[in-house]
Amino acid sequence: MNLVTGAMGSLLPKLAELLKEEYKLPKSVKEGVRSLEKEMKSMHAALRKVAEVPRDQLDEQVRLWAGEVRELSFDMEDVVDKFLVRVDDDSEPATNTNKLKLLIEKMANFFPKLKTRHQIADAIKDINKQVQEVANRRGRYTVENIVARIAPATTIDPRLKALYTEVTQLVGIAGKRDQELMNLLSEGDSVSTKKLKIVSVVGFGGLGKTTLVKTVYDKIKGGFDCSAFVPVGRNADANKVFIDILLDLGMYESHLTMLDERQLINKLRERLENKRYLIVIDDIWDEKLWEIINLAFSRSNNFGSRLITTTRIVSVSKVCCSSIDHSIYQMKPLSDDDSKTLFHKRIFSQESGCPLEFEEVSTDILKKCGGVPLAIITIASLLTSDLKVKPKDEWRALLKSIGRGLTEDPSVEEMLRILSFSYYDLPSHLRTCLLYLSMFPEDYFIIKDQVIRMWIAESFVQCEKAGSSLFEIGETYFNELVNRNMIQPVYDYMGTEIEACRVHDMVLDLISSLSREDNFVTILNGTGDSMSSQSNIRRMSLQNVRKEEGCQATPLESVSTLQVRSITTFKPAIGLMPPFLSLVVLRVLDLNGCDIGEHNHLILQDLGSLLHLRYLGLAGTGISVVPEEVGKLQFLQVLDLSGNHRIKELTSAVMKLKRLMCLLIEYGYAWLPDGLGNLTSMEVLRDITVDSISTVKELGNMKRLRKLEIWFDNLSLELEEAFVESIGKLSNIQSLEIFRRGTLPMESIDILGECWVPPGSLQEFVAINIKFSTLPAWIRRNPSHLSKLSKLVICVDRVGQEYVEFLGRLPALRSLFLGSFRQSGPLLVVAGGFPCLTSFEWGYQSPCEIVFQAGAMPKAERVVLDIGVRVTNEEAAGDLGMGNLPSLRYVRVALNRKRVTVGQAKQAKAALEKALCAHPNSPTFRIFFCPDIRVDARDDDVYFPDDESE
Fold this sequence. Notes:
By secondary structure, the chain is α/β, with parallel strands linked by helices.
């Protein structure tokens, strides 16, 4: 059973709020409120006990009682919230007496036994009576007392990326699985190999089908003219699949969404005509869907094209491979040895592997996992805590609790049972947050920052210590779910930061089932869902509408939405979105990506009636104005307006939102009105455009600001001085990104480099289209002071060897882009420099000359350079020292062939390619000339820029 499906955690602080002196409650009433608070705390503690017991082990009466408490807590919080925001009175605040009368009237709506609505004592007495009635019904059940622990701040497990790499290596072991699949793709005589061949990989969820196919795809795609990898999933729409393939193939035409199925098939056929292509259609569930997708691939293609599908369903794989020329690859579990390697890698960090004392129990546990990678990783995560291995007796206890069915008859049900062990091992607050992810569709790219803000708006994130940031606490929740392998991290393009997550299908099955059973989330996803059987809907996810299945295409009725607290709507289901006026207790409204202008029942001005609203997501909704009525949302914490380039200026009403913590605007478009300094709760201010000195000065009032992204049209000396003065007051700033609109030449911002002293909390500094004459003094003075700086994007007029050494001493730097216009001689990255750097980009208008010495950049995985050809011709520098970078995975080099012959440029490229091919990691690389060499160029031709004469 799950504690988190109620509102108890946020209700209790609000009951305490009613006892504050500002309400001047009579003594007898205070006693009643205290009694009520005491009883609800008792229920809260009881629920905590119940929450530790798996649902299928609970007595039915206890489960029903917990449901009563859940609904009671929701209703009580709605009552208190309506009172606190004075929902029925938009005028001046009432007297304390009138406030109390209003509270009685609202409580009467939820507690029908209330006899006297105008006497506080009777109201509290009646509430206590009803609460007591519910409390008495739990008497027959006792659960062992459990003490909850406060989770410490969590960082991403440093072994995590190695784990995911290890999964790839194990699922597609060289010479085994990946070779088997590649053999199926290439087998046949000289005639059959030129025909379109389809291979379908089939196996149940968690075996690693997608991982295997992605490994093979990455290995062989270079041998094809074009390639695409497209996930499908349940309830997929053929049009979306076709559009996704076209996008992967590089067709970015804006009108694609306007085309019907037939037109998209024709467009795809035209795109693939006379080409050798490799396309992966991942996770197909529906035979009929495949029959439609299959129409886009002509059998007359004789260029050796290959099509790979993955599915859990044998009948689907047979439909995919109906021809004798096609092949089915049956995915099998990992071998015992590979299972051990994966299991031990996750638990034991030392190279020696599993200690002798754990070998026997380890073998027994792996038998239960049946070679399923997902089960192995999930169980392994239960056996470690705070990066330490749990005692052997806890391993034995876990072994006894795992059923025997998996090894004898593998099934999805048993897999969910294994996953449920990880679920019930989570603290209650993490279960809440994990269940909330069932609001998102299958294979959805869930933005990390967005979902954390939604958790906060739902009061899932609680601040235990004064001065702590709710977002930072929420971030530890997210990191812990990643570390426990309940969600899959998605890294940014540089591979340095987690920007999003996905939920594995098996985990999504589990949390969706639990959410449905506990009335946590109601999902409309086009599979014939009905809300008629559910009362008191609290959260709704509107995901899809499929007319052929008879789903609603009209807005939901108001009667079904009166108690909804959270709505997330996805583009296909925007027509189901109920009118805003019907959502009287709504806390979270996420309409991101939905074009609300096409639906007349969604009136922006009505947003002002949502007085409980904490989160308002309007990103990419096509709106051109922000209504004045938004200023009434005094509890609003997040306002996301990004992706709306038609908004040219924000309404001054936004400046009234004193609780606003996050304001996101479309970059470089919307201008801010005066009053920015009123937003003293602001923590994240993104993509604002300013040209007013007064507005820049107001930034200094935002003492809690953690992240600032700001655009300037022009940087006058006075504006720059005001900006430096303001950010100097921001002692909590963690990320500062500065952009200047316009074209070259770059403007200098040397006052920022010389006069600003960043706080020790600074983690990211980005300056785009702006340069510094010299490396900023705040780096030169004491690099070790910037102990948290992990990302730096900066352009310096001239880069010298001493600057490289200063930057190399930044202790936490993981991502660096350093641009320059000039440099003084070849640069060396010396041993010991950049100890944590994983992504390194260098270059700008003047090609740099650089060599990596042994011992430099030990963790660098990604290197992007713009270098001069001449340096690669120097002795001992043909490979730039790339062989000295032990972690190298990806290299991109632009060879500037200024003032060298075509023959010299070609030799330099060949030398660098040879060196990279010899690298033990076999990194992916791309080396190209700048400018490119013409087809008719001779080896003795020399390139001179336009501003130079031969």
